[in-house]
Amino acid sequence: MSSILGAGSRLSSGEVRFVTRRAALGIAIVAVAGASVLSLAAGVAIGIHLPSHDATGQGAPATSRVEHDYAIDQLGKLNASMAQLEPRLERLTTQVGALRDFESRLNTPKAPPRAPANPADQDTSDADGEGGPSLPPRRCVEIATRPSRGDAASTQQQLDCMRATLSALEHETDVHEVAFSAFPGRMPADGARFGSPFGNRIDPFTHKLSFHPGVDLVAPSGTPILAAAGGRVVYAGPKGGYGNAVEIDHGNGLITRYGHASRILVHEGDLVLPRQHVADIGTTGRSTGPHLHFEVLVNGAPVDPTAYLALFGATSHG
Q: Model-level pTM greater than 0.85?
């Protein structure tokens, strides 16, 4: 959960572009290059160790049979290693695709609101010491100590290099996916239509001007209310005019609130995943009919939820 808290600070302070642009492009390039390196290395090694034939078509001398069998055994192990790396490359490709799709939405004119950034609030006491010169990455075929021979040992070095590179990329991608999952932009009620918007409005009870701190999503009673992002439930129960309400903390002051529920399915302290069913739409509290009152709060202050929902493709008010 600590990683979610750290990710939330970057998201709520408006640094969401870092989640995708630098990491996604780098991962995509290295992953594709890695697949090419593995194929090339394996092809060279297999070509070196295929049975050699003399001009008469006879096979290799019996004295080299043991070496030949050993080489074939090593190539079999290398092939098994490559088979293990392939699904990891596919997983990285899928992750990068999702992150780049999210980046394209970040480039839309409607950007998410930014919370006031206070450098004093940044806790770096647990950060590991890192540093060194900034150099471009090297291809694994260049790192091998004997790249020109193309034998099994050299190919194994390249596979070890690729395995270490993939592990580093997977760790970095997982960190960004945690931040992505903590971004509250997923539609919290499928099939709902937008009702009363965020901001000043004529109150439906007093018929006087008042401030509406969220958006109303109109749908029949019993429609599932879904978590807009992953996080921890910090409140679940009756809450004045909100009726039955759920509040989810996504890290560093970024909270979503879901009001007027007919039924609550989670409890305070529960960890929830994005789009998890947390409650059902109802008309409890200060409500004129079945709908979900949805709020996004940054450091305790309500912001327009439609700016977040727009990044995930939800249609806002016209």
A: no
